[in-house]
Amino acid sequence: MTSSLPTVFGVHTGLQHTTTDTLQSLWQRIEEFGFGWISIWDHFYGATGKPDDAECLEAVTMHAALAISTSRVRCGSLVYSVGYRHPAVLAKAITTIDHLSNGRADMGIGAGWAVVEYNAYGIEFPEVKTRMDQLEEGIQVLRGLLHDDVTSFSGQHFTMTAARNEPRPVQAKLPIWIGGGGEKRTLKIAAHYADGWNVPFITPEAFAHKNAVLDQHCAVAGRNPAQIRRAINVGLAWTEESLVAQFGALAPMVRGGVLSGSDEQIIDTIGRYVDAGADQVNIALRAPFDVDALERFSTALHLI
Description:
Layout: E1 8-13, H1 20-32, E2 37-40, H2 59-69, E3 74-77, E4 80-81, H3 87-100, E5 107-110, H4 115-121, H5 128-147, E6 150-154, E7 159-164, E8 176-179, H6 186-193, E9 196-200, H7 204-221, E10 229-236, H8 240-247, H9 251-254, E11 258-259, H10 263-275, E12 280-285, H11 291-300
Helix pairs in contact: 1-2, 2-3, 3-5, 6-7, 7-10
């Protein structure tokens, strides 16, 4: 059994089929358990992709609620979709969240994938190349507005003209994450512009491969790969029954990225992710939230 552990343990909390009261209570318990990061997702519908699964709370609002419901953890988002979040408007919102949290905000951005919500709300869902182009432009706009005093940018999808974002964030360099595992474009964009990279539900071996690809893109970009944090989102299911209860028909697809077995087996798997390059491991939870499982995990890893 390896003793390698990441520098940060977090919990990624889904916003579907739950209430604001439940989430606020959950976030406070997570902080009590010793985790250092809590994040929310960005969807209008549930993550099942079904057109009748629409019970999901809005992300920016809940990101702000997370900020004021906690006092210590980093408050992240994995990840906002550039397809329905204009990066300038998003930068303004995240800046306000940074003030609400007294400088604990992180933000993530991605190209978007849940076509069911785009179709339902009449939002254009272009081909993947266009969405990746939007992501590459959008993160540059975000970097400018969140990291610099004045931003000008001329792109095909977004334009900024001497744009200011005031008041400034509490943090001088509010961290911006890229979410996704695409090796040709997503990881290349992360290598050029991101402060962190996150991918969900892949095996340690797959994470090691994509981590190496990210390092290769960094070398081409002339960037020190150590400047980019690496995080894996994993499920937590002590039993097969728990796995099925959480993920239903998606269980076979996510199984490779789910921590399961005994305490020792889970610690060993975490060590394999760390050996593969992860410096942050996030437990991805969906309602109904298994708080007892989180407490057991915290105890096993001596987080408290």
